[in-house]
Amino acid sequence: MRFDVLTLFPEMFPGYLSQSLLNLAIERGLVSVEVHNIRDWAKGKHKNVDDRPFGGGPGMVLSPEPVVECVEAVQQMDSSPGRVIMLTPSGRRFDQRVAEEYSNEQRLVLLCGRYEGFDQRVVDILQPDELSIGDFVLNGGEVAAMVVVDAVVRLVPGVLGDEQSNKQDSFSSENRLLEFAQYTRPREYRGHAVPEVLLSGNHPEIAEWRKQNSLERTRQRRADLLPGNGDKPSDNPGNSADGN
């Protein structure tokens, strides 16, 4: 699977891409992540990518020319067309269901916002998926793009050592509940002991304990996820900053 990240701050990504599970997936050829500087498609001596908004108001708006031309050029860099995703507060809410949807794509093109956001003509011309990761303020879409990459990469076949891991994750399509509590050695720490059932070796009883623990944790922390309480829609627009 290929990810193309379009940003004004490509220097934010090398450290992220060189760490942990993502780095291993890249080294094994399961995924590739290419980072592109939108400013490379800007015209003029100063390579300006933004300007003041028509009608007045604070801040600067990303101009359509460098953004659209960057996306079009990047699309030509691979034979497989990429699904364009714009990180913006106007988008639908990102969640595990959306991550699972995106994991079925061969290629994702992630467009990172900055300043007061994109000129509307970027949306009109490119018709991207508009996506928000939550109702909070970020300086730009780079961190949001990393969130999307992280969530989707886990679902690419072969990335996880145990293919059952993502099926037990909180919010997965096969679960929809919060994950049950996990324990490891030592058996007791500062007066807190591992539940005896997990030490019993009785796998049906362990499975039942985990099921009930998952239900209870969900009931206490996210009752909206339980059947009959109504799932929180994944397409609710957020009220976050333009980088989200």
UniProtKB/TrEMBL annotation:
Gene3D superfamilies on file: 3.40.1280.10, tRNA(m1g37)methyltransferase, domain 2
Catalyzed chemical reaction(s): guanosine(37) in tRNA + S-adenosyl-L-methionine = N(1)-methylguanosine(37) in tRNA + S-adenosyl-L-homocysteine + H(+)
Region (Disordered): 210-244
Assembly behavior: Homodimer.
Broad class of where this protein is predominantly found: cytoplasm
EC number: 2.1.1.228
Family of this protein: Belongs to the RNA methyltransferase TrmD family.
Recorded coiled-coil stretches: none
An annotated GO BP: tRNA N1-guanine methylation
Top-level class of the enzyme under EC nomenclature: transferase
Positions annotated to bind S-adenosyl-L-methionine: G113, I133, G134, D135, F136, V137, L138
GO cellular component: cytosol
Name listed for the protein in its UniProt record: tRNA (guanine-N(1)-)-methyltransferase
Superkingdom of the source species: Bacteria
Function, as annotated: Specifically methylates guanosine-37 in various tRNAs.
Keywords: Cytoplasm, Methyltransferase, S-adenosyl-L-methionine, Transferase, tRNA processing
Domain tRNA methyltransferase TRMD/TRM10-type, first and last residues per copy: 1-226
Basic and acidic residues composition-biased segments: 210-224
Annotated compartments: Cytoplasm
Cited PANTHER family: TRNA (GUANINE-N(1)-)-METHYLTRANSFERASE
CDD domains: TrmD-like
High-level lineage: Bacteria, Pseudomonadati, Planctomycetota, Planctomycetia, Pirellulales
Pfam families (UniProt xref): tRNA_m1G_MT
Organism in which the protein naturally occurs: Aeoliella straminimaris
GO molecular function: tRNA (guanine(37)-N1)-methyltransferase activity
Keyword Amino-acid biosynthesis listed: no
